[in-house]
Write a structure and sequence with these properties.
The complex is a heterodimer. By secondary structure, chain A is mainly β. Chain A has no helices and eleven strands. Chain A is globular, with a radius of gyration of 13 Å. Chain A starts with a strand and ends with a strand. In chain B, the strands form two sheets. In chain B, strands 2, 4, 5, 6, 9, 10 and 11 form a seven-stranded mixed β-sheet that branches. Classes of the chains: A mainly beta, B mainly beta.
Chain lengths: 107, 123
């Protein structure tokens, strides 16, 4: 089973700042990594699939990138509605697995 | 618009059974694979099960294999999760989620989610 390790566990930033969230895979997942956003009391929402493909309707301030087994979700300029928990998920190997999440909180 | 609505959650004693349902609307249900994903209180996400668009294949996570059964009725736009021999560690919000792969092998990404139904296993 592929283990995804997200860092940091909690990220404290202010609106307007740039957020960089990391996800490291225990082995190669090719580019088969997705990012989800979850707000309290809500279901997760798919943001990015296959490392860098933004879902239709997701603002352009969200972007994904990869370098080997390291993946990054960048939010270029934080809006108040972006403060949430973010999860990465791989679909390269069975079973699909999620990272433990990064909580993005308002500083 | 795509809508997924789960139901059937509740409080159940260890060792007992429960069946969850997921009602789909706003898309051609029979064209898409479907998943169950769960989230224990205050914890992260765990994939539970997958069923192909036509029900021909099913897959399970190791933690539920042999105890849970996923199924679907395309004539009713419904998906189900039969959960037997429930354990305390099965306590979670259970989400149904759509796979965006159309009439083929699932992509194993979750593009639409329901609001979830809470299952609590406790004596």
């Amino acid at each position: 089973e592929i283990v995804l390790t997200q860092s940091p566990a909690t990220l404290s930033l202010s609106p307007g700042e740039r957020a960089t969230l990391s996800c490291r895979a225990s082995q190669s997942v090719s580019s088969f990594l997705a990012w989800y956003q979850q707000k309290p009391g809500q279901a997760p929402r798919l943001l990015i699939y296959d490392a860098s493909n933004r879902v239709t309707g997701i603002p352009a301030r969200f972007s994904g990138s990869e370098s080997g087994t390291d993946f990054t979700l960048t939010i270029s300029s934080l809006e108040p509605e972006d403060f949430a928990v973010y999860y990465c998920q791989q679909r390269s190997n069975w079973p699909p697995t999620f990272g433990q999440g990064t909580r993005l909180e308002i500083k | 618009q795509v809508q997924l609505v789960e139901s059937g959650g509740g409080v159940v004693q260890p060792g007992r059974s429960l069946r969850l349902s997921c009602a789909a609307s706003g898309f051609t249900f029979s064209n898409f694979g479907m998943h169950w994903v769960r989230q224990a209180p205050g914890k992260g996400l765990e994939w539970v099960a997958l069923i192909w668009y036509d029900g021909s294949y099913t897959y399970y996570g190791d933690s539920v294999k042999g105890r849970f059964t996923i199924s679907r009725d395309n004539s009713k736009n419904m998906m189900y999760l039969q959960m037997n021999s429930l354990r305390a560690e099965d306590t979670a919000v259970y989400y149904c989620a759509r796979d965006p792969g159309v009439e083929g092998a699932p992509l194993v990404v979750f593009d639409y989610w329901g609001q979830g139904t809470l299952v609590t296993v406790s004596s």
